[in-house]
Amino acid sequence: SSPSPPPLGTFIDNGALELVEVLGYGGYGVVYRAVDTYSLKPTSYAVKCLPHSQKRNTARQRQLHMREITLHKLASAHPNVVTLHRVIEDYQYTYIVMDYCPDGDLFAQILHHRRYLGNNALIKDVFLQLLDAVEYCHSLHIYHRDLKPENVLCFDGGLRLAITDFGLATTDEMSTEFRTGSVYHMSPECQGAYFTPTRTYSPLFNDIWSLGIILLNLITGRNPWKSAAPDDCTFQAYLRDPLHFLPTVLPISEEVNQLLVRTLEVDWRHRITLREMRAAVKEIDSF
User: Fold this and answer.
1) In this predicted structure, what is the pLDDT of residue 26?
2) Rounded-to-integer distance, Cα 226 and Cα 209, Å
3) Residue 86: enclosing H or E segment and its boundaries?
């Protein structure tokens, strides 16, 4: 079993950081807000705490932690990727020290603050920021595989976005690790058998599908279906009439519909590229 997470008030990094608040829990461990005890003006950081497992699979787990850290660090040079400042190790935990954002994640901005509804200029601006970040990751052959509003953090009251959580990221051009990510934003081919004629899928085009769902989240505050799978009746309805279905259930413009038909293309081999997506988004006047 893994050690229980460190209590609030714990000091790490030779006393330089104090863990003062829990920001969130996940399958990986806990994210804290930590305060820099040495600086004159108190600076906050987000600290992700990964416990070291006591079980036999420790080597595999260690490998996954190192993969996450390495890929996040590489991507973190981009302004729309959350900055990873440093990594601290002790015998029980690995701590990843990152930018803290008091404005929370994109999920909260969409759901609780209704930040983007009806604001065409803002939707375009922040979605292009996301495209920038993902395009940068892809240029380094880093594929995120868990793009969703909960993994996009907000700065400046939601005007600047940055992606985070590289726990499922890969550098594999083709993958057999199915069902990675959250089901609302997962491409049909990543869910396995039914839509995967090739027994493998492209993490790159899986990310593009996820971006299409995030665009819908930004515009409408809703998800088009629960799962892009054969047993989801809303997704089935989309498959029966992909050219016309989305505007009948969601308040989107025909311009957006045209883009989404190409983004939410079930055969990933015919899906839109990021470059084409950027060009299309720039042309949209009304979302």
Assistant:
1) 75
2) 14
3) strand 84-89
Dihedral-angle region of residue 104 (phi above 0 means left; psi in -120 to 50 means alpha; beta otherwise): left
Q: Quote the tokens at residue 194.
A: 């039914």
Tell me the residue length of the chain.
287
Q: Which residues contact 26 (CB under 8 A, 6 or more apart)?
A: none
C-beta of residue 51 within 8 angstroms of C-beta of residue 91: no
Report in angstroms the alpha-carbon separations of 202 from 63, 172, 190. 22, 8, 8
Pair (178, 61) in one structural domain: no
Mean pLDDT of 78-89: 97
Tell me which amino acid residue 155 is.
F
CATH assignment of the domain containing 233:
1.10.510.10
**Could you tell me if 83 and 99 are in contact, meaning their C-beta atoms sit under 8 angstroms apart?**
yes
Distances (CA, A) of 132 to 196, 232, 271: 28, 32, 18
Instruction: State the chain's mean pLDDT as an integer.
Output: 93
Measured at the CA of 44, the angle between CA 65 and CA 159, to 5 degrees, comes to: 90
The pLDDT assigned to 280 comes to 98
Strand pairing category for 44-51 and 93-99: antiparallel
Task: Flag whether 55 is marked binding.
Answer: no
Whether 285 has a pLDDT exceeding 80, the answer reads: yes
Given a contact cutoff of 8 angstroms between Cβ atoms, the answer to whether 96 and 69 are in contact is: yes
Residue 76, domain extent: 11-99
- Picking from 160, 161, 152, 158, the residue whose alpha carbon sits closest to that of residue 113 is 158
| 194 and 232 both lie in a single domain | yes
Which amino acid is located at 45 in the chain?
A: Y
Residues tagged active-site:
146
